[in-house]
Specification:
alpha/beta
Length: 281
């Protein structure tokens, strides 16, 4: 499902309202709190064919690029269409893994999405005021891509007992398999921090992988970072205002290098994002 956010769609909706979209198996979330005005929204959406919508679940696959550099740095987990809140493709997969209906999901916009697990625990997924999850890329080459037709034939032959499953391919039992465009030259591509052109299905896989590993980006607010830098700056000025020039240069340089090292260490080990240069995209 693609949420239609185009200006043309909005203008047409103002003249003549779109008919209600019908997603059959896919239902909107009833337990949503917070301001919905900032959610990715549209008067209509491109929905699956009726046969697919009736027999399976769907979700929004929108992954808007950053307005600054065109990269996919975050992805919407919920979208609003015609006043109703629907799950994204990634969130729908997680709900199906846990066999959870929309009635059991609670959403606090600007805070967290809570989904119960089958073992009695809960998934807690952080989202911003727009319902977006910040992507924590861990190198998209981690996801093995195989040709659809070749894999289909292998599965068919393996089920008949004609061949053993190839050791170089991952098992398909109890795994999440995402089918999408990955051949060079097709349309569903875009830049990521790792590559200039990446199959966007890997963006969806990155978001799902982060959730399943509970590996979310945790951002320190820019205001707090600025206050810390100002405190360090004033402290060094007070302590070094009468120091020798070598110390006045050396100590601030060591402090800056230490903060840079600490920022990289915290991001690599704990996914804490400390802005080193402002503005941060």
């Amino acid at each position: 499902m693609f949420v239609d956010t185009s200006d043309e769609a909005r203008e047409l909706a103002q003249k003549k309202p779109f008919p209600d979209i019908t997603l059959y198996a896919t239902k909107p979330f009833p337990n949503v709190t917070g301001d919905v005005d900032k959610l990715l929204s549209g008067p209509t959406a491109l929905t699956p064919l009726m046969a697919f919508a009736q027999s399976s679940w769907t979700g929004s696959v929108n992954s808007p690029p950053s307005e600054v550099d065109g990269m996919r740095r975050k992805i919407p987990l919920i979208t609003e269409v015609q006043g109703k809140i629907y799950p994204s493709f990634v969130l729908q997969i997680l709900m199906q893994i846990e066999d959870v209906p929309v009635e059991e999901v609670t959403i606090e916009i600007g805070n967290i999405i809570t989904i119960p697990k089958q073992d009695g625990d809960e998934w807690k997924i952080p989202i911003d005021d727009s319902g977006f999850l910040y992507l924590n890329y861990r190198d998209t080459n981690r996801f093995q891509v195989s040709e659809y037709e070749a894999v289909y034939k292998l599965i068919e032959s393996a089920e008949k007992g004609d061949i053993d499953w190839p050791s170089e391919l991952p098992p398909f039992t109890d795994q999440v398999v995402i089918i999408g465009q990955s051949a060079t030259g097709l349309s569903d591509f875009g830049p990521t921090p790792y590559r200039g052109q990446e199959a966007l299905m890997k963006v969806q896989a990155t978001a799902l992988d982060s959730i399943l590993r509970n590996d979310f980006i945790r951002q320190i607010p820019k205001g707090q970072v600025l206050l810390i830098w100002l405190a360090i700056a004033w402290l060094t000025l007070l302590l070094l205002r009468q120091a020798r020039i070598t110390l006045a240069i050396l100590i601030p340089s060591v402090i800056i290098l230490t903060v840079i090292f600490l920022a990289f260490f915290l991001f690599d080990q704990y996914s804490f994002l400390i802005p080193l240069v402002l503005p941060v995209v």
